[in-house]
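As the next step, I wrote out a protein sequence along with its fold in token form, included below for the reader:
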Amino acid sequence: MAGEGAPPLVAMPLFFLGNLQIEGQIPLLRSAYERLAEKRTLVRYDGRGYGLSERNVTSFSLDALVLDLAAVVDHLKLARFGLLARISAGPPAIAYAVAHPERVSHLVLWNSYALGADSWDSPRLKAFRAMREADWQTYAEAMSRFFFGGNEFAQLIRENTTPELQNAFDDATRGFDVTQLLPQVRCSTLVVHTPAVTTTTLDMSRALASRIPGARLAVVEMEALAEAADEFLGEGEQAAPTAAHPEAGAFRTILFTDIEGSTAMTQRLGDARAREVLREHERIVRECLRAHGGSEVKTMGDGFMASFGSATKALECAVAIQRAIVDWAAGVGAHHDAPLRVRIGLNAGEPIAEDDPDGRGDLFGTAVIRAARIAALAQGGEILVANVVRELAEGKGFLFGDRGEVALRGFDDPVRLFEVRWRE
């Protein structure tokens, strides 16, 4: 472990370069870990079969690697943390994040994949497999070039594994398949593609990001990896000041925002320009929350969850957000190269209030889920509210359009929705 701060970041090991001592000898990796440990606790561990772990291991199944991760975080009593997974560590990280959504706050997937065969059946890796069987020393030199563009790490690879362990590892990871789990990932996710690491193609990284809800793709050089991950992991730390933590069972109005077509926007504008647009969304929402007494509960990549003690204040905030976005969009000029359209949904009820490991309040329960479902039904630029919110704000000067009764996913009874007519 290194550094201090929460939530911690768990860096999952990469097999033949995952030894903690060996990674410390690689300047690029060492500086990346030092950067990531500046603002948070960084947890690293030797995986099964190498380093200080037991060497007499033959099973590298997906379930076994997930259990290894679980054993580490349970032993350290980490209630909530981020995950950094490189290449073959991606599938077990995805599997763990889906199985434990309440514990994984952020997921960083570096040159990884959902289907092991996509990587191992490529012509280049097939050639490497044949090379390994023919001559172990030549194979180590080739893998050093493959991952880092030179021979300087070949000796480290030879010291860290054996041909037998490498065979068992390759056979197991080739069979990894978490494709069906991708739509179930709920945490904020960043897919990082480094062109120099050719275990995966850019198309594979794009496909991985497109299958994970709200995931972003960043194409960076090796030297910029830690900076990109650090920026992503730090999102939400500059949260707006929150109102007093609600008592258990307190009546709250829940507001969700979500950027319409964020993945398509990133592909159209590129990572750097799309990130600028996301920062504007974050700035606008947080300024409006401060102005209207809202409490930022959490960010979810391209959206916010907030709560209010007053339905009127929540509606005023939602209208202010949409109007501020329109003003910002007009200010970027006539090129329309950075459109930003946000959908907003509101519901009210008595959510369950709990503190997360960082001491920040989080809200759960039916009222929260309904608010999220309502936001998902809105179009960009719309504000949709449940009937209970309209009734609470009756006589406060808002204009509503009746959208009728709508079935929300996961609920038996329909909810009557109204559109807030906020435009002048």
User: Anything to note?
Assistant: The two ends are 55 Å apart (CA to CA). Residues 9-233 form a domain with the Rossmann fold fold (CATH 3.40.50.1820). Residues 236-248 have pLDDT under 50 and may be disordered. The longest strand covers residues 252-259.
